[in-house]
């Protein structure tokens, strides 16, 4: 069961790290708050440690019981992430119905209830916002790491336009790491798994003085990867997608004055992950490519002339300031991040250097957000706040054909965003609550580019300003203690943007309109010591989806206008459905979990879509084909999805052994490219989507033993036990149709020590 969520941040002291190792799945009993900690914002009765089924979330920027928040949320503690086999950000869909974490090439792209992004590249942001310790993460590369030092993860479903407004049309994912503990504690863990996957993690936390505490966590992982490149004879040539990650996260929490708490943070990440850049042409390739010797077409093999790289380096400094006032708490989040990126990949999937691309970038981000949580006014709960955000990105892009580099393309992009918001809950009666909120957002964007000589592409530069208002209205009724029903209306706003790469002509630097979504939701939540049940139904009206298009040159008015590739808007889509989750603790050492979702997500007005069709005569792809996607399933939106999980503990050899399992099911869905076979395809298939994943199920299992002292642990685990084949990449180009599968069955051992 998802126990003690958020307790590491506000309720528990002396808690060892809940990282990606079962050694951290044991939570120590509650003690006094850590040095310098303020009292929880919720009343003590609401967060009683006597009830192990209390889950505290911050979805409304204040600490509340999960069942009292009128919003669909999947909230999971760090220990339960481990029990469910969730050790990476991309695994979150395994425990949250209606959620997928997918890849668009090198870029990580979450999807919630069918809302996702189909634009990829440096400078483009997701429409599911990710926050780590309250700080927004614009990076779509570095978030695809392992979940380390995690206290809890909260997945907020539906547009979060009022309180988490920047680019949160689909929802928000809040990742909270452990705060410093009041007692000296630490741990060290190692693991080894298939594909020469080596991991090591260390953590140390405790007080430096009465009013100062610290924590420091380090993590290292190095794996050969599961994709092997083969040479012309079919023998292994090199590891096509090795994975390496190294991170350091440090916190210093101080209480310099009464009512003042400061948390300083420094985070460093190095990530090498080329798994999304291995393109294997399996069908519809031209004869010139089919004739090449040693070309890989089988699962988990590749035939490349270089090792794909997706390297990200991140350094981030943060300061969270909390000041208690007479009427509430003022919280400030100040952060500065520097990122550097290098990407290179072979796109044609052959040993001949037909087509490759390299890209590099440097990004600097500053953010300042302040929330004033007012709780001293009778019958009112008020949050008011504001945001300032500044981002600057410099990048270069070098395409290569037949081993010869084209002129280097240079681009500079910047964003300056401000926002103001207010959210007020009024207690109409003791059991009836009305919430109203609104956010105003304004963002100014700039892009300029030039191309090294010789090149016919002229320099270009443009600016655009986007603004919007996102309201929220919610009615909640408490049927009984810890049992609520609610109905809500919310709007989401994803800022407009500009093309981030050089265009054929400067006139094609055309602003892309903001995405907007109107969401209606009704839900029911109940919880007790042994049972938690949540269910919700939703309806979305989704406008101006930002997508890639191949269209007649919109700046050309005469005859003979060319066809150009641009980022544009799909006019309208619709999504509706429902979901439910249930957790039960029938016995003290047995926890059962189940969830499921139905999602009907369709393009409604998208007759001018651009797709990769098929020529039925030549059996070759037709890139850039104009297609009608009206009524077609949106990408990454399976109609049915769900999971079942359980963990059971019994005494063994003086300690305790825990068996955990988590199974997931997903019905057929579009992997990322919603293209049809199109008007040139086989007659019976012209209106069918090409790049789909069939329905599949997966199972993760683990067995972990902890000694009687709760210091030592040993474990074994296996992911994708049934060795299920499932696609993470599926699309097509002039080189053929390409795909890449997810990891096959893996298994490993791990050991840990904590004090």
Describe the structure in brief.
The protein has three helices and 42 strands.
Describe this structure in words.
The protein is an all-beta fold and 755 residues long. The protein has one domain (7-754): Maltoporin, Chain A, CATH 2.40.170. Helices cover 2% and strands 57% of the residues. It has a 22-stranded antiparallel barrel. The protein has a five-stranded mixed β-sheet with strand order 3-8-9-6-7. It is globular.
CATH architectural group: Beta Barrel
CATH H-level superfamily: TonB-dependent receptor, beta-barrel domain
Q: What general outline do the C-alpha atoms trace?
A: globular
- Could you list the spans in which at least 5 consecutive residues all have pLDDT below 50? 1-50
Beta-strand content bin: over 45%
Helix content: under 10%
Distance between the termini: 25 Å
Which characteristics define this entry?
Beta-barrel_TonB_sf; Maltoporin, Chain A; 22-stranded antiparallel β-barrel; 3 helices; Beta-barrel_TonB; disordered N terminus; 755 residues; receptor; single chain; transmembrane beta strand; membrane
What is the fold's blueprint, element by element?
Blueprint lengths: L6 H4 L45 E2 L6 E2 L7 E5 H6 L15 E6 L2 E6 L15 E5 L2 E2 L13 E8 L13 E7 L7 E9 L3 E13 L2 E12 L4 E3 L5 E4 L3 E15 L2 E14 L6 E4 L3 H4 L10 E2 L6 E16 L3 E19 L8 E20 L5 E22 L2 E2 L3 E19 L4 E20 L8 E21 L2 E12 L20 E13 L3 E22 L10 E25 L2 E16 L3 E7 L4 E8 L12 E13 L2 E12 L2 E2 L21 E2 L2 E11 L5 E8 L7 E7 L2 E6 L4 E9 L1
Parallel strand pairs: 6-9, 13-18
Antiparallel strand pairs: 1-2, 3-8, 4-5, 6-7, 8-9, 10-11, 10-42, 11-12, 12-15, 13-14, 15-16, 16-19, 17-41, 19-20, 20-21, 21-22, 22-23, 22-24, 24-25, 25-26, 26-27, 27-28, 28-29, 29-30, 30-31, 31-34, 32-33, 34-35, 35-38, 36-37, 38-39, 39-42, 40-41
